[in-house]
Write a sequence for this structure.
């Protein structure tokens, strides 16, 4: 009995190495930094679906550009180390290829100690309420598109004012900066006139369903869109909403007008992209590199 199990193991191992990864499925990188996005995709155009398990969550593939695809977000604070991705590719009825990858997560954003500014009790209570409300909305997102088109940036031209992960510090003494947090999105320029006063329309980065339109104390007027498969996008500091909660939007559709509502002084668009129903925050640039044309 023992010998039988042993030989089955030896036989299985080279088979899965040869067939699943090297012939059928690709991954865009095996060494990945915090906040980046992994893309696992079938090499050939096919409707054969697959699924993978990563960090205890099961991810079903979806059609993207006619290829079965799974996107895995590496949260900007995910613990460093080696992780495995396991799954199966269904080639036909009762015919499966195993999928197995080992990936290494490297550090880009060491943990920071941050003490937020003191606010009045009333203000803090409102912030806590808004934070909890959005978390609950994202946890429940369940939009199910038949297929996923490519993503597009929300402003054209897309000029970056502040990158993901830049340090925002509250205290500064001569050369040194203290009490910093990371900027958890990208700021795009959204007023192109000479005086930087005329705000641009903001566009949905992909098809989806509007799940939140709200005037928030820090984020200002905010739209959140559910794109399916746990992926969401948030558009902050708008001056005007052009969509309502529950509305189905198309990629490129105007969802609002840029502005400077909330805690900001100049007109710009702050875009946040989350995966895994709000649990994973990724760098929108890394996301767009994986999913735009
Ligand atoms: Zn920002």
């Amino acid at each position: 009995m023992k010998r039988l199990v042993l030989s089955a193991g030896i036989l299985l191992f080279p088979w899965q190495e040869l067939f699943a990864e090297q012939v059928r499925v690709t991954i865009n990188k095996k060494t990945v930094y915090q906040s980046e996005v992994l893309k696992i995709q079938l090499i050939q155009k096919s409707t054969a679906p697959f699924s993978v398990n990563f960090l205890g969550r099961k991810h079903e593939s979806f059609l993207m550009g006619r290829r079965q695809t799974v996107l895995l977000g590496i949260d900007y604070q995910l613990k460093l180390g080696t992780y495995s991705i396991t799954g199966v590719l269904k080639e036909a009825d009762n015919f499966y290829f195993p999928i197995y990858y080992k990936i290494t997560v490297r550090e880009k954003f060491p943990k920071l100690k941050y003490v937020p500014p003191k606010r009045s009790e009333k203000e803090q209570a409102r912030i806590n309420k808004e934070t909890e409300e959005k978390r609950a909305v994202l946890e429940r997102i369940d939009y199910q598109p038949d297929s996923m088109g490519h993503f597009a940036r929300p402003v054209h031209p897309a000029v970056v004012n502040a990158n993901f992960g830049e340090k925002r510090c509250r205290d500064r003494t001569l050369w040194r900066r203290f009490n910093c947090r990371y900027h958890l999105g990208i700021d795009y320029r959204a007023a192109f006139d000479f005086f930087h006063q005329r705000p641009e329309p903001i566009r949905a980065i992909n098809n989806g369903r509007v799940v939140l339109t709200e005037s928030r104390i820090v984020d200002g007027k905010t739209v959140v869109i559910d794109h399916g498969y746990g992926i969401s996008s948030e558009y902050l500091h708008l001056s005007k909403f052009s969509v309502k909660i529950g509305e189905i939007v198309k990629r490129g559709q105007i969802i609002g007008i840029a502005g400077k509502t909330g805690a900001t002084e100049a007109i710009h668009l702050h875009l946040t992209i989350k995966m895994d129903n709000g649990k994973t925050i990724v760098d929108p640039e890394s996301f767009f590199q994986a999913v735009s044309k």
